[in-house]
Each structure stands twice: as C-alpha cells, then as structure tokens.
Amino acid sequence: MIKSLEYDGMELVALGALAESTSPMGALRLAEVFRDAGLTVSEATAGRFLYQLDQRGMTKAVGTRGRILTDIGRKHLAMVQLRQQVDIHSAQLAEAVTATDIENLIDMLYVQRAIESEGAREAALHASDAEIEELAAAANTHVRYVGEGGDALQASMNFHLLVARSAHNRVLFAVVSLLLEPANEPLEELLEQIAEKAGVRLPVALEHREIVDAIRRRDPAGAELVMRDHFATLIQLATDFREKFDH
Fold it and tell me: Given this model, what pLDDT does residue 162 score?
C-alpha cells in the first residue's frame, strides 16, 4: 500500500507526464518518469499505479500501447495544481500576518475587507435559511458578550468565519480561516484593545447585525457594502490609533 503523501506526489508526477505526453504511456515509461522525479518505483509498481488511475477514470488504455489522460484526469490535475498554488500563497500570507504591530494590523484589515466583502455578497446568494439563523445568533452573542462580559473577541471571529462558510466558496473560506487562525489572534486582540480605548466596541459589534440583515434580505450588493463599511470603520480606528501612537 502506497502511503498517502507519497501517493499524492506520484499522482501529480504521473498526471503531469501523461498530460504532456504526445503518445500513450506504458508502465516502463512511467517508471522512468518517476525515477527522473526522484521517486524509486519499479515497472510493476508503475503498472499498478496506472491501473489505479484507470479505476478512477483518470486514464484509459489505448490497446496495448499504454494509457492516455481522460477529461476527468485533466480536470483533476488542474485542481491539484490549483491546490498547490493556494498552499503556496497561504504560506506566504501566514508569514506576512503573524507580527503584532499596528502596520501589520492595518495591512490585514485591508485584505480582510477585500475578501470578506465578497464573502458577504456570496453569503447573500448562497446561505441556507438555517445558516442565516446561525449568523443572527452569532451576531447577537457578540453584542451580548460586549455588553455583559464574555469572550467578545472569539465571538467576533466566529461570526466572520460563519459568514465565510455561508458563502459556500472553499477557497474564500480557507483564506478567511487562515487570517483568523490562532497564530494571528494577537492582531485581533490589538484591534479589540483599540476599539475599547475608542469606546466603540458596542457600535462595531452592532454592525454585525446589519450584515446579517442584508444577507437575510438576499441583497448581495447591500451585504457587500455593509461588510465593506464595517471594515472601513475598523481600518479608520487602527489608522487613527497609529497617528496617536506616532505622536
């Protein structure tokens, strides 16, 4: 049994080679391709690997000459390559947003505004009724925690994650999750402190209810605008704080 990570690497090499090949590829040729990629694979193992691709509909035999890539295989290869690119960009993004200074906070808020505004738009289009009710409950929890005490920061982050999930866009949700992951909480905590000093924690929390209202109306343009305005408020807060800090 080939280990999962090893299989993933072999799959990418094999599908890529098949996509570039101008003729059917047999086990002997595939074993050579694997070896060129630094994978020690026998001809027999390469043959079994091709058979597994056949079973998944990614390749098909052309007589005894070997296999060619099917449309399913080409689509799967494109998805694997896209995931690689997302992983690369996610790693770069994670490195960029781990510091806790005010400049990085502002940079992160600009990124969140762009991504989460689109997320709110898509949520207005795609969220189920149950998801909208969950969003409303999360917004109310945030407001209650600000007023009565509780983990308001976690409640706020949870609300934003739920909006992204309700958009039903896996890449968008992955990026928002990355921005709000525990390693980046110092930036969110800094923002919470700035809002506290400015005395606007409750008004900012109430903006979450406005976002839910727009999503509930199934108003994509309105939801996008309210989310954008929400982040504009946060960016202004952070910018004002930076100016005071510099002085």
Answer: 97
60 and 114 fall within a common domain? no
Residue 41 and residue 132 share a domain: no
> Is residue 70 scored above 60 in pLDDT?
yes
What is the CATH classification number for the domain harbouring 60?
A: 1.10.10.10
- Written as six digits, the tokens of 99 are 């510091």
- Asked whether residue 102 is assigned to any structural domain, the reply reads yes
Q: How many structural domains comprise the chain?
A: 2
- Please tell me the distance from the alpha carbon of residue 183 to that of residue 99, in angstroms, as a whole number: 9
Range of the domain at 190: 97-246
- Encode pLDDT of 157-169 as tens digits: 999 999 999 999 9
| Mean pLDDT (whole number) for 48-74 | 91
* Gap between the Cα atoms of 216 and 135, Å rounded: 10
Enter the pTM of the model.
0.61
Find the CATH number of the domain harbouring 197: 1.20.120.530
